[in-house]
What we know:
The complex is a heterodimer.
Chain A: H1 7-30, H2 33-63, H3 69-99
Chain B: H1 3-33, E1 44-50, E2 53-58, E3 70-73, H2 91-97, E4 102-107, H3 119-138, E5 143-148, H4 150-161, E6 167-173, H5 184-188, H6 196-203, H7 208-218, H8 222-232, H9 237-251, H10 258-270, H11 273-276, E7 280-281, E8 284-285, E9 295-300, H12 308-311, H13 314-317, E10 323-328, H14 339-343, H15 345-353
Parallel strand pairs in B: 3-4, 3-5, 5-6, 6-9, 9-10
Antiparallel strand pairs in B: 1-2, 2-4, 7-8
Amino acid sequence: xxxxxxxxxxxxxxxxxxxxxxxxxxxxxxxxxxxxxxxxxxxxxxxxxxxxxxxxxxxxxxxxxxxxxxxxxxxxxxxxxxxxxxxxxxxxxxxxxxxxxxxxxxxxxxxxxxxxxxxxxxxxxxx
Amino acid sequence: xxxxxxxxxxxxxxxxxxxxxxxxxxxxxxxxxxxxxxxxxxxxxxxxxxxxxxxxxxxxxxxxxxxxxxxxxxxxxxxxxxxxxxxxxxxxxxxxxxxxxxxxxxxxxxxxxxxxxxxxxxxxxxxxxxxxxxxxxxxxxxxxxxxxxxxxxxxxxxxxxxxxxxxxxxxxxxxxxxxxxxxxxxxxxxxxxxxxxxxxxxxxxxxxxxxxxxxxxxxxxxxxxxxxxxxxxxxxxxxxxxxxxxxxxxxxxxxxxxxxxxxxxxxxxxxxxxxxxxxxxxxxxxxxxxxxxxxxxxxxxxxxxxxxxxxxxxxxxxxxxxxxxxxxxxxxxxxxxxxxxxxxxxxxxxxxxxxxxx
Lengths: 127, 358
């Protein structure tokens, strides 16, 4: 119980109240069109800077004969392709002795237990 | 309360607080040096992975399941393990135990070469591919589609375009429909000042940091207060476990495919085309009136991201005869996970889906 002597409980309530009021106050400020305009201008500047920085780093990496992010990305994509092919092979190996059927190319999982699909909803008032 | 009665209470309170202070110190160290519990613990098979798309099938926990499988469509901004946070805190585990066959569409961070993905890819390729895969594995030609937030928007688009077939039931949680009612987001993303083209053209994909910052700005001091509350509750293992799980999930915001983000801003946020019925995806007009499957929308009373005003007209405009909206106590995330969800949303969805899934 939050009695008058329970200082910690009072502190917790005050914290929640402060949180609510401060959020509201900042929201009211940021809802102003001028503030929104300034926020978006800052975002635009940050966007331009980031793009320029990215280009500069890319040039630097080329000059230093080091792999760039794009190179790693290309490697990652090739690895993804290899992983997908491995998954397909795994699925084929798992499926072939069971049914002799070819599973869909995308199937990559172990055989799934197949429970009966006959469940009925509980009666009204039941569990 | 009299001073006589207050005396022993005060002593007892002091004793408890001293014990908690000691526990805070010990457990505080543990918190700092140990990793949190691994999320996503319910056994599952990864059925499909293709770039940003992953489809999981959770292994059944009962011997008899309902005929129609559930296919969750996660919001594109976050990971789907919010549905499977931890043991006893897992929406998926709850549904499995209640006899549902559960599949989940999760999103990986889109790669740079996926910057061109559009609504068309999600609605006319990813979701149909997953529905087909679920059909192939389950032997059923219909699914119950359950979309969360932007996953709900994609599910609406899919169901409106594919109204003749595979969706047997459609449930959406906190799904924005009238995008002019977003409140602060509408102010911040005013097309006169918010240059979405410049952002997408510069970044390629929309960076996760910017998305997460925009969510944080809706409640600017809540994160800091959360840290204080964590310290205050450091003695409470359950609180700390839950805090860590949510904190980790919140920190794992995903980037968005650039063109998808551009489309979301221009067609939904600026032009509100989902609401006006003017949205076209791959040449198909998206009119939610075409949706005739049983429909449930669940909104959160204290949702600070998708306010109830942004979704309240949805159920009125859906074409289904069997349709319902429920507004539950809770926020955008606590609606689907955590103690609030265990008591409120989970049993509601079970009760709504069970008679429609046999």
